[in-house]
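Quick check before the chapter quiz. The format below is the same one you will see on the exam, so make sure you can read both the input and the output lines.
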Amino acid sequence: MPETILFYLFASVALISALYVIFSKEPTYAVLSLVVTMFSLAALYVMLHAYFIAMIQILIYAGAILVLFLFILMLLGTEGILPSDQARLGRGWCFFGVLLVSIFTAELAMVFQSTQNLKDWPSEILGTVENIGRSIFSEHLLAFELISLILLIGIIGVVNLAHKKEADNA
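Here is the expected output.
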């Protein structure tokens, strides 16, 4: 019974803070509520006995990436980040958004379907570092390398944008 109450508590906190991230007009408050979302997701991972994933969630996402977001917001300011209220999205962007949401929903359904065979495994084996490393570097090596490439492209893009902004200000 206490696990059920804790699950609903952490799930509702994660859902409310995630909705605040989406609908917030202030980018700084959105990032701070994203930190709350990440901590509540980490608590849900702890409840699933995936301790390694919970610690990675806190250290990497809440600790490093979101602090970097806050640092960039504080450094660059928030002027001009959000579009004005008069700006409207065209039909192409709406179609793209619906297509993206449908792809993510189909992917989520496939993930739920593929995790049905994990119920046979003992819960202490699922979240171990050894099994995560074995899974990443054997079954999901291509996806792991593609994510690394995407992150590298993102870093190069940010450096390029920052360099252009410095050149414009000089």
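If your answer matched, good. Residues 141-169 form the longest helix (29 residues).
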